[in-house]
Amino acid sequence: MNPVIEVKGVYKSFKNVQAVNGVDFEIIKGQSVALLGPNGAGKTTLMEMIEGIQKPDAGEIFVLGRKWKGNEDTLHQQIGLSLQETHFLDRLSVRETLVLFASFYCLDRRRVDEIIQLIDLAEKSRSYVANLSGGQRQRLAIGIALLNHPKLLLLDEPTTGLDPNARREIWSILLRLKQQSQTSLILTTHYMEEAEQLCDRIIIIDHGRILKKGTLSQLLEAENGPKIIEFSLEAPAETNGFAPSRFQIQWAAGQGKGSVILSDIETELPEFIEFISINKLRLKTLECRRKTLDDLFIEMTGRRLDD
Amino acid sequence: MNRIRHNQLIQLISAQFKDIIRHPAVIFWGIIFPILMSLGLGIAFTRKSDIVRQVAVIGQEQNPSSAGPSSGTDSRMIMDFLRHHAEKMESNDTVSPAHRITLKDDKLGNTIFVFRQATWHQAMSLLKRGNLSVIMDESRGEIQYHFDPLNPDAQFTYYKLSGIFNETAVTASTDVILPLTVSGTRYIDFLVPGLMAMGIMMSCMWGMSYGTIDKRSKKLLRRMVATPMKKSYFLIALMMVRILMNAIEASLLFLFAWLVFHVTIQGSLLGLLIIFLSGNIAFGGIAIFVSSRTDNTEIGNGLVNAVVMPMMVLSGIFFSYHNFPDWSIPVIQKLPLTLLADGLRGVFIEGAGFTDVLAPTAAMLTIGVVFFSAGLKVFKWH
Ligand SMILES: Nc1ncnc2c1ncn2[C@@H]1O[C@H](COP(=O)(O)OP(=O)(O)OP(=O)(O)O)[C@@H](O)[C@H]1O
Ligand SMILES: [Mg+2]
């Protein structure tokens, strides 16, 4: 099957920043993929090169089997996108904004009404864009991206800065879309949960490079993968000078908190408790959970995703 | 209605038009403000009211300054003259006693001189504030006048004063003076087309440049060109909306000037139309060029000011540019604002016909097309 997006050896730098540093990947029709990475990872730069807004310094990008050069009109007809931040005309209503964009695609008003239903803004259709909440505005941006029944949808941080409710509303719009159409989706996010909810595949990027890609279970090494223990102590302790052990504890400096990864929890947990008591520490809390993308990211980079 | 007229251009025009007129400030700055300005200036320059001039008379004092009065002046002669010939004015605690002489004149308006005694120091500060333009004192039995010889108002005051003190003043003109107040020759007739030209320039330069830069910095341009929208349609719509706005503003200004000051259009209406359109195209093109690159509204402000300010000063909107040095006149006449203002004045007050305005129309169209094409070429959408 032909991939909808092919990115081959793409580089892009600004004055003194290497924003995208040799990226290769493919996306197959109907797939949804998350680009997950912290601030400045190069997600927006990569997206905008796929969207034809920026040009790569080196490498090739094929969208729906075509290069951008010379195919702008065809590609613009077939993709839908929302930028990381766009303001629309402040004093146009939601409906008027959709009608304007619909006219670019030669669509009729029926499509505008459908979109208003889809993004659940019927009540707000006459409000000025300036008076929408952040979540409503983001839904409008997604509505505009969906106007032309795109074969490929590119969303740059569709839920950043929104509260959990607003975020869930957007997820439900996108999940419905996924069930009902063959649209391929690529979205960027800082939120692991979002990637988990919406996407079949995840690409983790940092400093313009792909650190890891695959399905969620591939990345987290399946169900019986390692577990994480997070604990805190009654009193902050010196973190060095313990009896040597096989545990690699990640200490949160000076807070009396730490975490440790256990690959075989049934045998290792008792050993860990023993380690605590040998060192005469007193536990305040102890939690066990499965490994997440956040942990994976910290493991790979030493930093948190949402830093 | 269930169908969108399949026309990007119409939708772009309608969207941008709504976006403009829904800002209440637009109504004030675009429509009320030029009308208020024409009202204020029109009244200031059409009603003949009394001219009041303050004159300082330096009293007894020692003054070491060489520019000041000779030492030992007491202005006794002047004060005697005033006591006999002038009417004494009520004085209170804050104002020193003063005398008033009124020169009556039905045709040119009365001139009232108010004489106030002051020290040299007080007189100088009044002069600097623009409250008076002539200072009088005496030296060895002679009256002396101190004023800036380059200031026409001071000169006028001096001539009249010296007439009074030499007792040759004409209290009413004996010459035959026939005031020219027929329409077409008054200041307001000169002013209204100038205000229209200025309105077109301001509205294009600020409205189009600012709007475009703002849309760029908010990434709206970037979003729009990621659709099949035609780029040229966007810019054409921008200009059409501006022309429409300017037509409304200019019509209202004219309607007002016609009702209140009986300003009329003496020349060809078709000529007026093409001058108006080509002026809009000239400034629209310049505005698109000026806003073609930057995404910073501060830089945009600076650029617009750099274009607008020199023309505001040079192009003779409020007063004729013929006061500038001769060598500069041919340059000034080629500025777009001068072309537009002169063209409009030609039709409004000189009765210019269609063919008379073809030359400035062609010049402005050229300016507009050149800047528009250059702007479109370097235009930054992302
Ligand atoms: N136009 C530009 N000029 C200069 N540097 C840029 C430009 N655009 C991006 N960069 C730099 O390139 C790097 C990657 O930026 P990019 O916007 O792609 O990151 P991102 O992953 O989208 O981050 P965020 O999550 O904050 O949106 C950053 O260091 C950024 O400062
Ligand atoms: Mg980004």
Give the topology.
The complex is a heterodimer of chains A (307) and B (382).
Chain A: E1 3-14, E2 17-28, E3 32-36, H1 43-50, E4 58-63, H2 72-78, E5 79-82, H3 94-104, H4 109-118, H5 134-146, E6 152-156, H6 164-180, E7 184-189, H7 192-198, E8 201-206, E9 209-215, H8 216-219, E10 227-233, E11 250-252, E12 257-262, H9 265-278, E13 283-290, H10 293-301
Parallel strand pairs in A: 3-7, 3-8, 5-6, 6-7
Antiparallel strand pairs in A: 1-2, 1-4, 8-9, 10-12, 10-13, 11-12
Helix pairs in contact in A: 3-4, 5-6
Chain B: H1 8-21, H2 24-46, E1 51-58, H3 76-85, E2 87-89, E3 98-103, E4 111-118, H4 120-128, E5 134-139, E6 142-146, H5 152-165, H6 187-217, H7 220-224, H8 231-261, H9 269-290, H10 297-314, H11 329-332, H12 336-349, H13 358-378
Parallel strand pairs in B: 1-4, 1-5
Antiparallel strand pairs in B: 2-3, 3-4, 5-6
Helix pairs in contact in B: 1-8, 2-6, 2-8, 6-8, 6-9, 6-10, 6-12, 8-9, 9-12, 9-13, 12-13
The complex binds adenosine-5'-triphosphate (ATP) and magnesium ion.
Description:
The complex is a heterodimer of chains A (307) and B (382). Chain A has helices at residues 43-50, 72-78, 94-104, 109-118, 134-146, 164-180, 192-198, 216-219, 265-278, 293-301, and strands at residues 3-14, 17-28, 32-36, 58-63, 79-82, 152-156, 184-189, 201-206, 209-215, 227-233, 250-252, 257-262, 283-290. Chain A is of the alpha/beta class and 307 residues long. In chain A, strand 1 and strand 2 (17-28) form a beta hairpin. Chain A folds into two domains: 3-219, P-loop containing nucleotide triphosphate hydrolases (Rossmann fold, 3-Layer(aba) Sandwich); 227-290, Alpha-Beta Plaits (2-Layer Sandwich), CATH 3.30.70. Helices cover 33% and strands 28% of the residues of chain A. Chain B is elongated and about 90 Å long. Chain B is built from 13 helices and six strands. By secondary structure, chain B is α/β, with parallel strands linked by helices. A six-stranded mixed sheet of chain B has the order 2-3-4-1-5-6. Chain B has helices at 8-21, 24-46, 76-85, 120-128, 152-165, 187-217, 220-224, 231-261, 269-290, 297-314, 329-332, 336-349, 358-378; strands at 51-58, 87-89, 98-103, 111-118, 134-139, 142-146. In chain B, a hairpin with a 7-residue loop joins strand 3 and strand 4. Chain B folds into two domains: 50-179, D-Maltodextrin-Binding Protein, domain 2 (3-Layer(aba) Sandwich), CATH 3.40.190; 187-378, no CATH class. The mean pLDDT of chain B is 85. In chain B, helix 2 packs parallel to helix 8, helix 6 runs parallel beside helix 9 and helix 9 (269-290) packs antiparallel against helix 12. The complex binds adenosine-5'-triphosphate and magnesium ion. Residues 14-15, 17, 19, 37, 39-45, 84 of chain A line the site of adenosine-5'-triphosphate.
